[in-house]
Amino acid sequence: MEDCLLLDAGSGGRASQRLISQCFFRHFANPLLERMDDAALLTDIHGPLAMSTDSYTVTPLIFPGGSIGSLAVHGTVNDVAMLGARPRYLSCAFILEEGLSLETLERITADMAAAAREAGVHIVTGDTKVVPRGACDKIFINTTGIGEVFANPVPSGHSARPGDAVLVSGAMGDHGLTVMGSREGLSFLTDVASDSAPLNHMIEDILQSAEEVHVLRDPTRGGLATTLNEIAEQSQVGILLEETAIPVHEAVRNGCSFLGLDPLYLANEGKCICIVPEDKAEAALEAMRRSPYGKEATRVGTVTEGKAQVSLQTRIGGRRLLGMLEGAQLPRIC
Amino acid sequence: MEDCLLLDAGSGGRASQRLISQCFFRHFANPLLERMDDAALLTDIHGPLAMSTDSYTVTPLIFPGGSIGSLAVHGTVNDVAMLGARPRYLSCAFILEEGLSLETLERITADMAAAAREAGVHIVTGDTKVVPRGACDKIFINTTGIGEVFANPVPSGHSARPGDAVLVSGAMGDHGLTVMGSREGLSFLTDVASDSAPLNHMIEDILQSAEEVHVLRDPTRGGLATTLNEIAEQSQVGILLEETAIPVHEAVRNGCSFLGLDPLYLANEGKCICIVPEDKAEAALEAMRRSPYGKEATRVGTVTEGKAQVSLQTRIGGRRLLGMLEGAQLPRIC
After folding, report:
1. CB B42 to CB A49 under 8 A?
2. Mean pLDDT (whole number) for A107-122
3. Which terminal Cβ of chain B has fewer Cβ within 10 Å, N or C?
4. CATH topology of domain B7-149
5. What is the ipTM of this complex?
6. Is omega for the bond preceding B60 within 30 degrees of 0, making it cis?
7. A329 pLDDT more than 90
8. Cβ contact (<8 Å) for A47 and B50?
9. Ramachandran sector of residue B36 (left: φ over 0; alpha: ψ -120 to 50; beta: rest)
């Protein structure tokens, strides 16, 4: 292989075939993908299905705790899982900039393959476009996932009920702060790493253990505060959070306070919000804590009657409204 | 709405919600999409499934006969259909450049919605990223489609057999030449327009009428010659084409001869290659001709024993090998 990607690799001809077989097939190896028909044939998947898509444009491409490759698998696997589904298959579409280092592409492809293996999903169909220098920033990846829904009822942002317990699977803000620190070269942020992780196995355990789960959502762009606001609106309920109960890692708290950021609005890529009836809260928390990705799971609040808004019981005993993120704290976080 | 897209619209907060509801929901309107959970819940789809993905980066965004919006629906719908499947659902992920004209985005979204309606598919889940100026070229769209496979056996590039008839549903090269002409402002190319079209209804008719269809492929990037080479390799057969039988519109032939291009290597976005047993050829051609997109359907060659290669019986009686496209004739054609 050449050192840098040439425009020809997106032509659909021999040069495309070489890139596909030498890089993508080698890492993603599976017989469904290798058929090379216009679409993948999936004979062993049964509805109801969950389907979700995300394009990943994160910069830098590689950051502490992950890369655009692992993120592109985790993000979509998690979105599918949040519907109470077992993620099964992913599509993967690359938009690559002419001149991209093939070593970087190889590293990112290997990260995707490793993440897919851990999550137990197969990448079965793909697409590669190469655009001229300056037409995109190095590499964008789209993944679309489908999975088999097994939860009944299906968790939804519309299903929170007054009295429900609001749980999170761990600390908030690690991914957002890591990407920002890594992009800006903030050397004082040495103790932070992205939480990017596949949550599907943990989700399956939560659903089996707690039996009745009203809401599952992952607080990505906009963070915990924005996602809870969406749920409050969808379900037409209030949500009351205990500030002291929300887990935030020391390094993230310090970094945020230095930079004037609020960790409750920072993106997470390996956390879930889980809203369950009060009497299922303990079972759900225990299931989370059994997972390597839920060790710091905890209860952070309660669903209440009344106006669709999120309130925070503060450290010093007051109450303040936690609005939805208005604009961008930081673009290209995922 | 403002006139130009702001970075905030990709934040995941209120500004994102406004773009989604004012533009995407308005055009794509359907209850599955509007649930706004992390994934779409699809309760009425049954396997076996076909799944296909494509990212669209075509420039210019709007060209005679279509736009990146209609193309993004047709391309993926056709790929799913080529597996002998009924396309049902699409995901849609936008990567948008800060500063993009909202009027352009609206026009493209409307084109997607119209194309989806004609094809009978629903856009059920989506994603919107906004990247800073210069990080992408205006707008890239990924669509991923799933459909229900009804053909039995399932058509595949691996299934061509010696003696089969090779059919095409119409003239070659219109899309590729149109995009090139439109990009370069070639004023003498006035009589060409993209053939971009949804082929799923025609495909369904072909499969029902011809009963046994060995191969269905759409000759997009790399054109007829490259796609037939892929089939020859996959099936380990020869393919012999009659040059005089291959339909090429007069304006495309003239444009290609002026520009030194070969229409057999130019992309098509509304055509299919159909390989069937000799005794099914008439039924398949009749089905194609019943469709508004197959009026010029015709037989162009025969599958032969022997080496996996494509040969052309030329106008003057000789034979020449038609190789696979090596590099790029033209980047960003789709």
Report:
1. yes
2. 98
3. N
4. 60s Ribosomal Protein L30; Chain: A; (3.30.1330)
5. 0.96
6. yes
7. no
8. no
9. left
